[in-house]
Amino acid sequence: MRSPVLPLTWHLARSAGRRGFQSQLLAAGAAAVGAFVLLLMLAACLGSGARADRTTWRMPDAAPAGSATAVQAVTSTHVRHRPVTVVSLAQLPDRRPTPAPPGLSAFPKRGEVYVSPALAGLIRELPAKQFADRLPEPARYGTIGAAGLASPDELVAVVGRAPGDPAVSAAAEGDGWYDEGRTARAGITGFAGSEPSMFTGADQQTALLGAVLLVVPVVVLAAAAGRLGAARREQRLAALRLAGATPRQILAMTAVEAAAVGAAGALSGAVAHVVLLPALAEIPYGVGAWYTGQLWVGLPWLAAVVLGVTVLLTASAVTMLRQVAKSPLGVAQQADPRRTRMIRLVLFAAALVYIMQSTGGRLTSRRMIVLLALFYGAFWLFGPWVVDRLGRVAGRFARRPATLLAARRLSDDPRGAWRTVSGLVLAGFVAGFFSVSRLDIGFPEHPDQVAVITENAADARHTATEARALLDRAGLEATVRTVGDDNFDGSVLFGNPGVVARVSGGTERIDAAATALTPLGEGRFPVTQDYVSAPDAAVTDRIATVSTATLIMSFLVATASAGLTAAASVLDRRRVYGLLRLSGAPLKVLDRARVRETVLPLLVLAGGTTAMGVFGGYQLDKAAGATVDGAGALQLAACVAVGALAMLAAIGGSRPLLRRVTADPAQTAD
Questions:
Q1: Comparing 242-246, 311-315, 335-339, 598-602, which segment has the lowest mean pLDDT?
Q2: How far apart are CA 441 and CA 533, in angstroms?
Q3: Mapped to the 3 state alphabet, what secondary structure does 481-501 carry?
């Protein structure tokens, strides 16, 4: 016998009228936004890993003794505060030819210089004395292809050298703490490296942190979409249940409807992501913009996200029907106040104690992700309990009708009220976390210095004379002095012997001085503050970028979730609002009650999560041995203000809908 589930589901969906269509359209839109954001996060994580993989060829892996066919040395310099990676290659005589590095058609010959497209543009733009003179002058510049670059904006040069050139000698390999991960030298047979560049190595880790913090707001949005029209659906299915439909048929009808809406919305979000890939690739992160292919997650991941959002929306809708299957008469009579139990508080307290104890030691990335997931889960369990108790307290002390209505709503359906504010409450944790996790390492800075490392103090005195002559020839006024190997605070050399030139006049003159002093480096570029700060900046800049993006996206998603839930609440409670209007309640009172039932839990819960976010950010700073950036307080205040305005805007957006559904209360409340 043919099952009546599908025909009946289709008939009910068509006969739901404009109210049903509005709910389905909102649910599909929420699913589309959720799928789009999830794919964007996934693309950032996978793309960051792909970018890092494209830089592994630059850090040489030493070949076995006697088998090397070439010598490779890598270092970096800076121009206009941007890092430039320079790879020097020398073919060893009487050895078999070395294969071409990625992005080049052949191994570079002596005197050949290949540059990335972005660096070629910079060379054309700047005077030669500010950068180009740091490299050999070729007959023409070759171009490094995309296979050898992490980003179209990356500045990279590959220089062909003679085996005896100082740039590929043992002196070219730095031994300072700031050289780690970007200055190396080794004999090689090919370019199958395993260590990514310092400028891309931390990208995936920080992107993953942002993704973890964004997952919960997206899940909240998808769950809210699954509960759109819940009250209308409960009443309709309860009637069918009383008419003889089995629990299995009721659940199947809901699952089919929700899955169809969720799949349509999630697929729309996936299509939007694919269509917008070229535009998304222009968003800079780390070393710059992306190649479009780096953000393509592949068909398996695309299908998994669409399926995941569909399943999440369907599960959210189905779980709302447990009471329909259990007690359809109670649902039909709306006689089921949804209380919460004290066990939620106990579990939350236990989880919180475990999290606080676990943050005392060293925090690895995996451990931090697990703790964040545990915190989100615990707070999701705890939130409805707080809303329930808050509603009871507010009802006991209410002195105005709007407050009494809001309190009754909170205590009657604490889970529904929690879903309205949950996105912004959890976004408060993100705001608190990132407001204090902008790391400040605290090392002394010398932005006006350009230094040359020497073998010893005696060489430094001789080099100082040459440095003065080179700077005079370049027309640069500078104070030149020698530094011993016991000076850790007064210069950018931090304990290395050498020569330090103090140059005034800004970035352009610093770049010109670094170019002028390049011949004194014996294979190494002069050291500037940008070079010394780069290892820390590579991490702190990524955290700053991810924090800003995460804050913006979490508040946008949370606001969308709040607005969606507020609109759905108006549609679901249309009959209740109609009865209240018939009893004489002014529309202004109903609107004030809606605002208060949102603001009360938001003030209490968002304050708690924000404080916990601040604590988590402080623990991250403590683990990194850094201090809290003072600008974080201003950022936190701005986030709180923006969050409050966003919530009020989300509630205000459904005010016209409230006016429309109560325009004819007699017809509404029939």
A1: 335-339
A2: 10
A3: EEECCCCCCCCCCCCCCEEEE
Which residue type occupies 286? Answer: G
Task: Find all residues with CB under 8 Å of 487, minimum gap 6, and list them.
Answer: 493, 495
Check whether 332 has a pLDDT greater than 60: no
Residue 222: which residues within 8 A CB-CB, separation 6 or more?
Answer: 30, 31, 34, 262, 309, 312, 313, 316
SS3 content of the chain, % helix, strand, coil (to 5): 65, 10, 30
Does residue 522 contact residue 168 with C-beta atoms inside 8 Å?
Answer: no
Rounded-to-integer distance, Cα 452 and Cα 104, Å: 31
User: In Å, what is the CA distance from 158 to each residue of 80, 114, 323, 565, 578?
Assistant: 20, 5, 68, 56, 74
With contact defined as beta carbons under 8 Å apart, do 230 and 254 qualify?
Answer: no
Contact 160, 68 (CB under 8 A): no
Cα distance between residue 382 and residue 341, in whole Å: 10
User: DSSP letter string over 63-97?
Assistant: PPTT---EEEEEEEEEETTEEEEEEEEEEPTTSPP
Provide the 8-state DSSP code for 285: B
The DSSP-derived string for 524-540 is: SPPEEHHHHHHHHHHHH
Maximum distance among all Cα pairs of the chain, rounded to whole angstroms: 100
Burial bucket for residue 106 (CB in 10 Å: 0-12, 13-18, 19+): middle
- Strand partners of residue 70: 91, 188
* DSSP for 638-655, written as a single string: HHHHHHHHHHHHHHHHTH
Distance CA 15, CA 556 (A): 33
Cα separation, 85 vs 156, in Å, equals 5
Query: Mean pLDDT lowest for which of 158-162, 257-261, 553-557?
Result: 553-557
Q: How many residues does the chain have?
A: 670
* Residue 533: both structure tokens together: 């700060």
pTM for the complete prediction? 0.79
- In angstroms, the Cα distances linking 666 to 23, 133, 649 are 23, 84, 29
Query: Residues 187, 190, 191, 193: is their CA dihedral positive or negative?
Result: negative
Q: Which of 559, 666, 661 minimizes the C-alpha distance to 19?
A: 661
- CA 254 to each of CA 7, 238, 317: distance values in angstroms, whole numbers, following the listed order: 13, 12, 7
Please return the burial class of 235, using the count of CB atoms within 10 Å of its CB with bins 0-12, 13-18 and 19+: middle
Residue linked to tokens 């590095």: 101
Q: Which two tokens stand for residue 477?
A: 């006024």
